[in-house]
Amino acid sequence: MSQEGLRPAETTGSGYALPVFPYRRPAELAGERRRHKVAVVGGGLAGLTVACDLAGRGIPVVLLDEDDTVGVRGASSRGIVYAQKTLEIFDRLGIYRRIAEKGVTWSVGKVLADDDVLYSFDAAQGSLSKAPPFINLQQFYIEWYLVDRLAELPRAELRWRNRVTGITQREDHVALAVETPDGPYTLEAEWVIDASGLASLIRGALGAKMAAEQGEDRWCISDVRFKKSLPAERWTWAKADFNDGRAVWQHPMADGVWRLDYQMGPNADPKTIADPETVRDRLRRHLGETEIEIVWVGPYGYRTQLMDSFRQGRVFFAGDVAHVMNPFGARGGNSGVQDAENIAWKLAAVLTGAAPEALLDSYDEERRAAGAHNIHVTTRTIRFLAPRSPFEHRLRDAVLDLARRYDFGRTLVNTGRLSVAFDYAGSSLTSNGGTAVPNVPLTLPDGSTGTLSDLLRGDGAIFLVLCFAGAAPPALPERVARVFACNAAIGGLPVLRGAALDRLGGTGEVLVIRPDQHLAARLVRPPGAAVQAAIDKALGKERAR
Amino acid sequence: MRTDAYIPDADGFYEAIIAANEGLTEGESEAFLLRFALLLANQIGDQQVLLDAIRTAREMVAGTPRS
Q1: A526 with A454, same domain?
Q2: Number of domains composing chain A
Q3: Do A398 and B38 touch (CB under 8 A)?
Q4: Cβ–Cβ of A397/B31 closer than 8 Å?
Q5: B-chain residues within 8 Å CB-CB of A409?
Q6: Which of A87, A179, A364, B62 could form a disulfide with A131 if both were Cys (CB 3.0 to 4.6 A apart)?
Q7: Smallest Cα–Cα separation from A135: which of A333, A278, A416, A276?
Q8: Which of A364, A381, A398 is the last residue before a domain boundary?
């Protein structure tokens, strides 16, 4: 995520016991010459997700990480909120159950000003997905589960303590210079995904352009345990009297730890705000007299960064390397996971020969649009939380005042618009699709219960075609799409059953769903050729012409 | 955005605004105007009209804003 410690002023209290993964001497150092299909640089959230997704699709992948553990700088937990689309992806990748068992599932949020609850929301209302709206969990646990999952996948190789020090793009591959405990070697890969974070060496070495802006707003995280019992909800104070009229965040996560995040004065000195006594005093003002155990304290500022292009030749950029935003809305980590899913199915489609290489251009098109959108949304939030002029302060006071009394005022209060799946409506891969299809629960043709994403697992990049009563069954090659009838018998198609399915489509409709569970097209009583055409478009075959 | 005369009793409206600000400090009057503007914005409920009104008001005071 985008939080940066300004100084190493963080305090590690009773931290976490993190795993250490073994370094193994790479085959190249034993003289073996290899041309890898895909190399992923960086074992953070985006890098591990893309490796897991590729390997799950049967694509050989090697991941390089300079460290030998998960998490950053010891016990800092970075991202904590995982939103529905991300949870659906993790379900497909096979780590959802562990996340749900370890994390805190929640859907209720409250927005406060001092002692007043301005409004509360329940994100579970109207949700069609089997996944809950949110689970809070320390980021390193997610990374850990991904590493464990990768160990089960024969197509994946993890190389710990392999630090990339240089990159050369060639006609048909990329050469990475890699440093290891046994010395340097060159790794060759047809495609590279750089997921090495906001200080990426590769991005710099390739001279990729990027717009960046550093803000003055300062915050201080205190991850703490305490005796007092609080509801498992997201509480955000637009202003809190116990924090000198500034904003405060209160979020539960695993192991009984709470993330309390306090807005500080503009340009506040990180050393001062993270001073142990100051921190304890701040916590007492917030929580009252209760036994407090400090797990981690981290002062931070944030910047905004967006690469001009998420692709440079054979290199794709995913996660923080490509886009950085403030953390209010949990859009950093969640969008990194969506980057990963987007490039994974496209590379799988190209490497299995199902799609032309032109499909890969759409990664930049779709995910850069998402990055720009997320930056726009989070920047609006911070303009509300950190007014820049006396006028902006007074305008916000008026909004908070109105919000205490009227519904419409509440819509103007912005303490973060939580991450949702990006809508690819503007993408060249679709003419009337783009939205994420919720992972509805259903009964599979064999009578077992499952969800839509169960139908998307397997090698390559498979499309899903859902036919509703009144539509004709399209004939499609099996390696391209799996075709089902929904709550009706349609020409011998296998039938999916479930009440939620009828919320996805109506009489005569055919939904064409991409491997990332976004809608490619919604067609009404289409001839079979129209369904094939929608799939061809979603595979970039129009772009290739 | 409409700019033809549409307020039913213009003099009465003007009188009411003045009366409401009677005895207020400059800061209080600004607070009044902000709340008044936000309440009215919600009555309009048409994004394009609101954006046109914002742009027009800005231009009348200090020209086109940087965007």
Answers
A1: yes
A2: 2
A3: yes
A4: yes
A5: 38
A6: A87
A7: A333
A8: A381
Taking CA–CA distances from B42, the nearest residue in chain A reads A408
**pLDDT tens for residues A48-99?**
999 999 999 999 999 999 999 887 655 566 889 999 999 999 999 999 999 9
Integer CA distances (angstroms), A305 to A379, A391, B36, in order: 12, 27, 37
Query: How close is the nearest chain B Cα to the Cα of A395, in Å?
Result: 6
Name residues whose C-beta falls within 8 Å of residue A520's C-beta, 6 or more positions apart in sequence: A429, A430, A433, A463, A512, A513, A514, A534, A535, A537, A538
- CATH number at A521 reads 3.40.30.10
Report the residue of chain B nearest A401, measured CA to CA: B35
Nearest to B34 among A398, A406, A408 (CB): A398
The length of chain B, given as a count of residues: 67
Domain range holding A48? Answer: 13-105+132-209+309-381
Place of tokens 């562990």: A98
Smallest Cβ–Cβ distance between B31 and the set A394, A408, A412 belongs to: A394
Of residues A395, A398, A408, nearest to B42 (C-beta): A408
How far is Cα A327 from Cα A379, in angstroms, rounded to an integer?
Answer: 10
According to DSSP, the residues that pair with A298 across neighbouring strands are A221
Tens of pLDDT, residue by residue over A155-184, are 999 999 999 999 999 999 999 999 999 999
Question: Does one domain contain both A350 and A485?
Answer: no
A342 contacts A371 by C-beta, under 8 angstroms? no
3-state secondary structure A380-423: HHHHHHCCCCHHHHHHHHHHHHHHHHCHHHHHHCCCCCCCCCCC
Q: Is residue A240 part of a domain?
A: no
**β-pairing verdict for A449-451 and A441-443:** antiparallel
Q: What is the distance between the alpha carbons of residues A347 and A50, in angstroms, rounded to a whole number? A: 10
Give the torsion sign (CA, A503, A508, A514, A520).
negative
What single-letter amino acid sits at B1? M
Give the pLDDT band of residue B18 (cuts 50, 70, 90): very high
The residue among B26, B38, B43 with the most chain A CBs within 10 A of its CB, best to mutate, is B38
Question: For chain B, which residues make up each domain, given as ranges?
Answer: 25-67
Cβ distance of A399 and B38 shorter than 8 Å: yes
